[in-house]
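subagent[fold] <- orchestrator: predict structure for attached chain, return tokens only, no commentary.
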Amino acid sequence: MISTKKIISDLNDIPREWVFEHYLNLGERLSGQSLKIKSVFSSKDKVPSMCIYIDNAGRYKFKDFSSGYGGDGLNLVMYLFNLSSRGKASFKIMDDYNEFISNNSYIPLEYKPQSKYAVSDFEIRHWTTLDKSYWQMYKLTSAMLEDYNVHPLSFYTMVKEDEGRVLDSITIEGNFIYGYFREDGSLYKIYTPKNKDNKFIKVRDYIQGSDQVTFESKYLVILSSLKDLMCFKTLGIGNVECIAPDSENSMISKSFMKPYIDKFSKIIILFDNDEPGLKSAKKYKTQYGFDYINLELSKDLSDSVKDHGLEVVRNEVFKLLKSIL
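subagent[fold] -> orchestrator:
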């Protein structure tokens, strides 16, 4: 038990989970589990988009998909209180913790390995008129979906296991369920566009579109999603290839980008037309020096195609690309 009389002068003596529990006013203690809450950085967040999770080193971190912020407890306090350095955040945490334990006791909970749901089974089905009506809103044909290995699913099953023992199993079935597959047939993502709370289920890491890159074009465009990528290809702009990260908030590694940087004359970022998208594009500019363009029609490229049509979007994107090439 931590003494309430001891004055803490070293940040390492403060339980890392306390930082998240205290500043985020969490309704439960952290003991190794992941949480998803509404963003504390965006009052407009109607669906929880801020994740608190354990990294590979066993330390709590956060990722806020609404604002694009992420990092450890120091980063959290820096962003919350607009502090200019990790040192200032460290002093604030120590002051606040000392005040807290002057009136409270704090016993860190023992971390327990948390079982997570994982996709264990799925079934590919035939396309239907409902599928056609959905994808045609974005002017995407069955040929384009086939090129990028998008297949409709009749169901998928999620299983939670603990040391080989099945704790729970959930099967989801219905319309508008799609599997994203690699060229080798392995499933890497499930897309359920009608599910407002959880449209994507990640199965494994994969840079979308990388299987289809031939390195025969002069330029590469990095888009925010596979749907945006396919819509871009539908525009018919020549001499351009495309990839998309797992999400626009995840940075593609330098080791992965190296052959692309070596092979392409120029790499351009085209992310969503909102604050998180622009922040992510600027991070790529800082990290790699890639120029970015912003399509100011709808929220993203695929919605722009749906709302304004292929010709309008093609002309606008061509104009934006021409301005930086």
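orchestrator: received. Logging for downstream: The mean pLDDT is 89. Residues 11-101 form a domain with the DNA Primase; Chain A fold (CATH 3.90.580).
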